[in-house]
Write a structure and sequence with these properties.
Layout (H helix, E strand, L loop, with lengths): L1 E6 L5 E9 L6 E5 L12 E2 L4 E9 L3 E8 L2 E3 L6 E5 L4 E7 L1
Antiparallel strand pairs: 1-2, 2-5, 3-6, 4-5, 6-7, 6-9, 8-9
Length: 98
């Protein structure tokens, strides 16, 4: 798994690309407080090599809790900027700093 950040000079946003290797998966989505934890509109596209990838514009100077949903299972990003305990989830969420 990986995250790539591209800061735009002309807009107050960061283009964040999420990459998830999940060859056997059918669907992968990224959910977090940037999209109200809704997989709708946040599905990643499956590439020919079995990797799922998607790019989202997120407002800069914020931090976002997030997870991946891989075929219905919640998974944390291994290369997150940090992790934060979430009482509602009863576990840690990955955190993205942009």
């Amino acid at each position: 798994m990986s995250i790539t950040k591209q800061y735009l000079k002309t807009k107050p946003v960061c283009k964040v690309t999420f990459t998830v290797p999940a060859v056997d998966a059918k669907k992968v989505a990224v959910v977090g407080d940037f999209n109200n934890w809704s997989p709708k509109g946040s599905l990643l596209k499956k590439l020919k090599n079995g990797t799922f990838k998607g790019t989202f514009d997120l407002p800069k100077e914020n931090s976002y809790e997030f997870k991946y949903i891989v075929d219905g299972s919640y998974i944390n990003e291994t290369e997150a900027d940090r992790y934060q305990w979430n009482d509602y989830a009863g576990g840690e969420n990955a955190v993205l700093e942009v």
